[in-house]
């Protein structure tokens, strides 16, 4: 808008300067005034001619003749050597002065534009032509547009703020919920879960948190159950020993044979305590990842043969048959002591829970890069509902019979952990009333 108006006024001012500079130089003031009046009427503008000192010599409005005009557009030509200049001013009411364009809009103020052009004669500036046009309508439209733009900006900013608040609540609500859940978990509530909504990273974060919560809750329940079971197992032999000792203390006249029997029972209970504590320490070392495998090269078949030899007295005592079928030596690079304990626990367990006159079959074969050890008995078997828990700590299928046989409920759990430490697996297949088969698969690593 301003560029177009400025260009038109500059063209008009330059043309008039060329037409009037000779008239002004020859002091033909009447012809000059007539020419300016005619041109001002055509342009709808006010025209003035100033001399080289800035004093008005001709004014189509006949108001400022003899007055020095000090607007910047005039000074720029007379003092700095410009040939043309242009500016927009807001006139002060009741004065001939002006203020620059950047002043705020005032409905009562008068806005004008000044376009100046140098009047030259003989290569020397002898005056200035001033073309002044009222631009009130244009300025009002401009400021109306500016006000509308400010209003639109405020509306857009408010809408953007509301949208930002809305979307920020959508985004931060799951995070706030997750934060509250973490705080609840920090206060001991491991049952807390967060709703899984939306998609992307927040959904995966919620799912991961819920998975972690479930595992922590299961671990906490397992820990509590473990502590409860361990306390119970330790309390039982202690209670038995207390009863036996009190009987000895408060019956000083007890027969020697009875006293010896009581002391023998106390010794057995001490052995049982030692066994439980040893098993617990083994499991603790496995849980804390401090247990290391002292690997060496040995024959797993030899381990099975030696273990069977150690358990022969137990089998003969109960008139049980222990059969070995070793199809391969299964030379391994593993922890001899720990795998010996695995084999011993499984074979002892099979003999312990097999009725008198029963049989236990031990078979060792090589399958690819794995050694497969199976131990089968023809005992009472394990109910289906118990098989999923058989490797849990302190879990017993028949608690009364387990205590009679001196079991701690930790043997199979130790077997499971030691086999996993070697990168193998252990499983059980059983049918109630038809015996059980434990299968251990171990990778054969060559040292």
List keywords for this structure.
5-stranded mixed sheet; 3 domains; 6-stranded antiparallel sheet; 447 residues; single chain; Beta-Lactamase; Helix Hairpins; Heat Shock Protein 90; rod-shaped; alpha+beta
**Spans with pLDDT under 50 lasting ≥5 residues?**
94-105, 400-406
Mean pLDDT: 82
Q: What structural category do the secondary elements indicate?
A: alpha+beta
Number of helices: 11
Helix content: 40-55%
Q: Quick one: CATH class of the largest domain?
A: Alpha Beta
Named CATH architecture of the largest domain: 2-Layer Sandwich
Coarse morphology: rod-shaped
**CATH fold name of the largest domain:** Heat Shock Protein 90
What does the main sheet amount to?
6 strands, antiparallel
User: Cα-atom Rg, whole angstroms?
Assistant: 54 Å
Distance between the termini: 91 Å
Tell me the CATH superfamily of the largest domain: Histidine kinase-like ATPase, C-terminal domain
The fraction of residues assigned to DSSP E strands is 15-25%
Number of strands: 13
Domains, number: 3
Strand order in the sheet with the most strands: 2-1-6-5-3-4
What is the H-and-E element order?
HHEEHEEEEHHHEHEEHEEHHHEE
Protein model, in words:
The protein is α+β, with helices and mostly antiparallel strands. The chain has 3 domains: 2-134, Beta-Lactamase (2-Layer Sandwich); 218-287, Helix Hairpins (Orthogonal Bundle); 295-443, Histidine kinase-like ATPase, C-terminal domain (Heat Shock Protein 90). The chain has 11 helices and 13 strands. The strands form 3 sheets. Strands 2-1-6-5-3-4 form a 6-stranded antiparallel β-sheet, with helices on both faces. A 5-stranded mixed β-sheet has the order 8-10-11-13-12, covered by helices on one side. The chain has a two-stranded antiparallel sheet with strand order 7-9. Strand 1 and strand 2 form a beta hairpin.
